[in-house]
Amino acid sequence: xxxxxxxxxxxxxxxxxxxxxxxxxxxxxxxxxxxxxxxxxxxxxxxxxxxxxxxxxxxxxxxxxxxxxxxxxxxxxxxxxxxxxxxxxxxxxxxxxxxxxxxxxxxxxxxx
Length: 112
Known about the structure:
Shape: globular
Order of helices and strands: HEHEEEEH
Distance between the termini: 15 Å
Structural class: alpha+beta
Mean pLDDT: 73
Strand order of the largest sheet: 1-5-2
Low-confidence stretches: none
Largest sheet: 3 strands, antiparallel
Helix content: 10-25%
Number of strands: 5
């Protein structure tokens, strides 16, 4: 993301899948930053922090990069075949977010 290497890009097949996701355009009904399937009780169960939850919808995320993002390409969400990622699972928190938004989350929350 913006020249920053994410840990997930080091997994075989991750770069290809991330580029495929990048090429998906959000449907017209999702032309605002949104989650397709918000995770139930996402703040209560500790999956994300309150500060991470606010980033996608803050005023600083008004860039033109609105595309579908998985938003959690952790190894536990990757189906691997022959040492390469072939599928992503767990679409909780996936949605129309964009590269800039996910980059901000990674820089501020995941890898500060």
